[in-house]
Amino acid sequence: MNRNDLLKEMRDSIGTQAPVVFFEKMIDVMKLLFDRIDDLEKDLKETRINSALAIHWEPKVAAAMLSNQINVLRQDKETYFDEITKLKKAFVEDRITQNYQDFCNFWQDVLGWHPFLEYK
Fold it and tell me: Which end of the chain is more exposed for a tag (fewer CB within 10 A), N or C?
C-alpha cells in the first residue's frame, strides 16, 4: 500500500471506526518508515564507499563491491549465472580491482551499468 492511501485511511478512521483500526494503520506507517530508513542507510553506506573511491582508489573496497554484488545476484542464481561466474573469477584473480578504469570497464561489460554513476 502506498503512503498516501494509508494516511487517507488513517484520517478517515478517526471518529468513524474503533481506535484499534487507526493504530493498526499506524503500525503500517511505522513499517514503511523503518523500511525507508533501512534503504537510506544502505544508500548512505554505498555513497560513502563511492566517495572514498573518488578520492583515492582502494582495491580492497573494489573487491568488497564485487563480493557484495555477487551476493545480490545470488538471490536469482538462474538468471545471473554468467554474471556471477565472471564476477567470481574477477574477485579471485584480483586484477580488475587494481585501478579505477579497469574496474569500471569490467563492471559495465558484465553488468551493463557504471558502478559509481548508477545503482541497481
Answer: C
